[in-house]
Amino acid sequence: MTLDASAAPAETLLPHVDREAFARDLDALRAEVEASLGPDDRQHLLRIAGVGRLCTALGYATAWMGPNPVSMALLSLGPTIRWTCVAHHILHRGLDRVPGTPAHLTSKGFARGRRRFVDWPDWLDPAAWDYEHNVLHHHRTGEAADPDLVEENATGLRDWQGPRALKLAAVGFYALTWKWSYYAPSTWQVLGRAEARRARKEPIAPGVDAPTADARGPERYLEAFDPRTAAGRAFWRRCLAPYGLARFVLGPLVFAPLGPGAVASVWANCVGAEMLGNLHTFVIIAPNHAGDDLYRFDGPTRDRGERYLRQVLGTVNFRTGGALRDLLHGYLNYQIEHHLFPDLPPRQYARIQPRVRALCEKHGVPYVQEGVWRRARKMVRVMVGDETMRRPPTAP
For the whole model, what pTM was predicted? Predict the structure, then answer.
């Protein structure tokens, strides 16, 4: 459970670091970046969005010819780009301060109302993901109240005494299905708890809205799939049915004039793309805060310097640099910079990454950066219980 700040022991988190000086240097960098925001940042993001749409179009244009890896890869990459590069950064207010940005590209207009399936057609509800990720995860990174803390979410699997091969099989299942089997229901339930709290006029309570250690088992989030309940029916109506029907029924039926073989081929390519897209996003998202060289924390932060320290110590970067590499990583290879300054457009993360790393070296703050596959292996070892994340030493 999350500890109250007044009751938690004081964490001796890198006592050699001058937190105030570290925070001042990062604040100065942020101010410099904010002053440089302009139309180039918006055009950069729009070009990325165009690449995503092109991938989807080419994927469907070739999908009717027969099941093939090229169509699957293209149909997979399109939604991945829309989520990780476009929706992610826009909902984080990445373009809100860029002059001349139209309303539908701001955090208040993107994927809202009638634009829900125009801007971001996917399993996840935009409002649910926005609250779970932007509010809870970013403000409580690495804490038990963080709904995306892999080690905490995998407690049942880590503690299970069954064969390791079956544990790895469970990880493989979630890697191929996690957007609809885990992430969509989890975010939906988190938002449901927050809305129920608001209806009761209760204050914001991240430790209540996020799943707790005793409520993260499969029996809890599987309740979202139960059509016998009002919440379950809403989840199907809002998340699963629209995207599932569009992706696996209406999309293939568009090719009916070309014959049943074309319809079957498009359907097969869409199924393959779904599994490939789940695997792709699982590998570039889930390892961001998992590994035996990263920290997790007890209780909320106490000052700005500690917040900055936690974001660096609980986060990892993948290899950075190069337009294609950044695109395939969904710009999540700049995760440390993103967690320090979550409301910047992706172009800025690539620009400031060397400077952030230099600031960490200047102040003696460890800056972890490794290849994505190495980090994925570290995450899997945490999930199955082979490794455990670090905890800062505490003092009374």
Answer: 0.92
